[in-house]
């Protein structure tokens, strides 16, 4: 029986040694795994910082582009307003000229212009002297 007990004890010692070796190996694997996780956390932090910087840069550039577009739109709007004012001025002048040249405009303008033109263009009236008055 002591042979069986010693065989069992030997076998148990081998199992314990094997478990100790496996425990050491598991500890090493966990250490390597933790190191990889730490490295990945550092990489993630760097990537998140880069993403944040890109986000900030993108927002700044977008704001600059927006401001430039708004400035250009204001300039175009100002130019259109100026062109519109000139167009309406020309339209008004052409309307007045068209009215003055039209027959209806001539009827209205002629009486206004005729009295002053009559004084400038008509010679003064001379009375005729009869032949009986001459002698």
Our count of domains comes out at 1
If helices are DSSP runs of H or I spanning 4 or more residues, what is the number of helices?
Answer: 3
The radius of gyration over CA amounts to: 56 Å
SS-based structural class? mainly alpha
Q: How big a fraction of the residues is strand? A: under 5%
Shape: rod-shaped
Biggest β-sheet, characterized? none
User: Runs with pLDDT <50, length 5+?
Assistant: none
H/E order of the elements?
HHH
Give a brief description.
The protein is 91% helix and 0% strand. The protein is mainly α and 135 residues long.
Q: In words, what does this structure look like?
A:
The chain has one domain (6-102). The chain contains 3 helices and no strands. It is rod-shaped, with a radius of gyration of 56 Å. Helix 1 packs across helix 2. Helices cover 91% and strands 0% of the residues.
